[in-house]
Amino acid sequence: MLDSIYEFLARLGYAHPIHPTEVHMPIGLVVGAFIFAWIALLFQRPKLAQTAYHCIVLAFIWLFPTVLFGVMDWQHYYAGAMPFPIKIKLILAPVLLVLLAGAVLLGRGRGAESKAVLTSYGLCFLVVVVLGYFGGQLVYGIQGPSLPDELKAGARLFSAHCSSCHPQGGNVINPDLPLKGSPQLVDPNVFVAFIRNPKMPDGSAGSMPAFPSAQISDREAESLYEYIVQTMGYPTRK
Ligand code: HEC
Asked: Among the atoms of ligand 1, which is closest to the Cα of residue 228?
C-alpha cells in the first residue's frame, strides 16, 4: 500500500521523500505567528495579533499531514530504523502537537499583549527550530570543520579505505551508485554486511572491493558507519 503510493509519485516524476517538501508549511506558519505577535505587541497593532493567531491555527491543522508524511517517509526510506535524529523527531512531534493545541486554545480571543500567548508561540517556535535542525541532520549530516572527536577515527578509516572511490560521498567508478544516500546505510549491520561482501543493487557482482575483518574490524566498521551517516546523512534511496 505504502510502496504503491511512492511508486505512483515516482511515475509522476516525484522520486524523493514527501515530508521535506511540505514541512515548510507548519514551520513557516509558526515562524510567521511568532513574528506577527511580537510586531503586534511592540508596535501596538492588534490586527496583527489576529494574523498571528490565524497562522497558529493553520500550523496546527497542517501538523497532521506533516507528521503523517514524516512517518510514511520513515517507514519507506528508513525501513523504520531509529537513528538518533529520528528518535528526537518522534519525541518532539507530539510535544509540538500539544504546544500548538495549547496555543490555539490560549490565543482564542486574547490580544498580543497576553504574555501567556506570546510564551506559547515562542515555545512552538523553539520546538520547530529543533525539529528542523534534526531534519537537516538526517538529510545532510553534520558538516563543516568542527568534526566531533568521536567521529575522528571513522574519518581516518574513510580517507584510508573509501574516499578514493567515494570522494564527498560520491562514486567515481559508478556515479549512479553514490555512497551518500545509499540504502546500505540504513543501519550498522546492513552496512557491515555490505562492505564485507559488496554487491550491485540487483545482487550481481560489482567492482567495489570487499573489506574483510582482517582489514577493517567490526568495531572499526561501526565507527566508519557513524562517521558516514553523521557527516553525509542517512539513506535517501531505496
Ligand atoms: C575501488 C573503488 C571503491 C572503494 C575503495 C570503495 N568502494 Fe564502495 N563502491 C564502489 C563501487 C564501484 C560501487 C557500486 C557497486 C559495485 O560496483 O560494487 C560501490 C558501492 C558502495 C555502496 C553502495 C551504494 C549503493 O547504493 O548501492 C556503499 C555503501 C559503499 N560503496 C561503501 C564503501 C565504503 C564504506 C568503502 C570503504 C570501506 C568503500 N565503499 C570503498 C567502489 C569502491
From this structure: 35
- The span from the CA of 100 to the CA of 207, in Å, is 52
C-alpha cell at 130: 529543533
Instruction: Specify the fold of 2-140.
Output: Four Helix Bundle (Hemerythrin (Met), subunit A) (1.20.120)
Pocket of ligand 1 (CB under 6 A): 161-162, 164-166, 171, 173-174, 177, 179, 182-184, 194-195, 198, 200-201, 206-209, 211, 224
Q: Residues 145, 150, 153, 154: is their CA dihedral positive or negative?
A: negative
pTM of the model: 0.70
pLDDT band per the 50, 70, 90 thresholds, residue 127: very high
Please enumerate in sequence order all residues whose Cβ is within 8 A of that of 17, keeping only pairs 6 or more positions apart, or say none. 69, 73, 76, 77, 236
Half-sphere exposure of 102 (CA within 13 A, CB side): 15
149-232 has which CATH code? 1.10.760.10
